[in-house]
Specification:
Radius of gyration: 16 Å
Shape: globular
Largest sheet: 7 strands, mixed
Order of helices and strands: HEEHEHEHEHEEH
Strand order of the largest sheet: 1-7-6-2-5-3-4
Number of helices: 6
Structural class: alpha/beta
Oligomer: single chain
Number of strands: 7
């Protein structure tokens, strides 16, 4: 845990040397009404989680990540794990990890999850997966939409480019409550609400 508080200032310095970062809406994080909450950013680059870690400030998060993120290189894999990264795809104990994360959110932890499930293609936002909303419903926590925008011609990450990290208004926990684990009507409405929030932040 102590290592996390050493790594984050180091990463903040390194990332601000490599990129011109602008943060918007960080005050929205103070509007969260539940003990824990979920951060739901768009996903463009493999290093997106680091931009969240160095701009959010606060305690260590639980970060849901695909196993590919732990295969980029040894340093990033180590960094992600130090920051709270857990592999939730391609592992036998995935159900147990999700159950533990739900409990952690109830107790006040922040979960970082990329709802699109994979990186965007051709600069287009992808429809969010259902997992985020199922966890939010079970944990009873707010969701904060977030948008990461790279100011480059192709919208992709390039060294020394301008990067905007935008935190939106919290989506209240009550809107995620479902009658069943697969309340398709509620899932569809919440997916559209998140897409609308992302689109609004890109204007």
């Amino acid at each position: 845990m102590m290592l996390y508080y050493i790594l984050i200032p180091f990463a903040w310095l390194l990332w601000h040397l490599g990129f011109r970062i602008r943060v918007e809406g960080r005050e929205n994080l103070k509007k969260v009404q539940t003990k824990g909450y979920i951060l739901a950013p768009t996903h463009v680059s493999a290093i997106d989680p680091v931009f969240i870690a160095v701009t959010r400030w606060g305690g260590r998060m639980v970060i849901f990540a695909k196993k590919e993120l732990f295969e980029i290189n040894a340093f990033l894999s180590w960094f992600f794990r130090c920051c709270g990264g857990v592999c939730v795809r391609g592992t036998k104990d995935e159900v147990a990890v999700i159950a533990q994360t739900v409990e952690a959110c109830k107790e006040g932890k922040t979960l970082l999850i990329f709802p699109e499930g994979t990186r965007e293609k051709e600069g287009k936002i992808l429809p969010p997966k259902s997992g985020l909303f199922v966890i939010a419903a079970e944990a009873g926590v707010d969701v904060v939409p977030c948008r990461i925008l790279y100011d480059t011609p192709d919208g992709k990450m390039h060294l020394f480019c301008k990067v905007r990290v935008i935190y939106g208004e919290p989506m209240p926990a009550a809107q995620f409550a479902m009658e069943g684990r697969r309340d398709t009507k509620k899932l569809r409405a919440n997916k559209q609400a998140l897409l609308d929030a992302w689109e609004k932040m890109g204007r």
